[in-house]
Amino acid sequence: MDDALYREEILEHYKRPHNFGPMETPDRESFDTNPLCGDELRVMLKVDDNDVVEEVRFEGHGCAISQASASMISDEIKGMKLDDLARLDRSAVLDLLGIDISATRMKCALLSLKVLKSAAIGTLADWEPDTVDAARPAGGAQL
Amino acid sequence: MATASQTALAVDFPILGQEGLVYLDSAATSQKPRVVLDALEDFLAHHNANVHRGVYPLAIDADTRFSAGRAQIAAFVGAEPAETIITKNATEAINLVRYSWGPGNVGAGDAIVLTEAEHHSNIVPWQQLCSQVGAELRWLEVDDEGMISLDQLDEFLADGRVKMVAVTHCSNVLGTINPVEEIVARARAAGAASLIDGSQAAPHMPVNVNAIGADFYVWTGHKAYGPTGIGLLHGRRELLEAMPPFLTGGDMIKTVSFDETTFNELPFKFEAGTPPIAEVVALGAAVEFITELGIERVRAHEEAITAYALASLKAVPGITIQGPSLAEQRGGLVSFTLDCAHPHDVAEILGRDQVCVRAGHHCTQPLMKKLGVGATTRASFAVHTSTDDIDALVGSLGRVIDIFGDR
Ligand SMILES: Cc1ncc(COP(=O)(O)O)c(C=O)c1O
Question: Does A5 touch chain B (CB under 8 A)?
Answer without folding.
Answer: yes
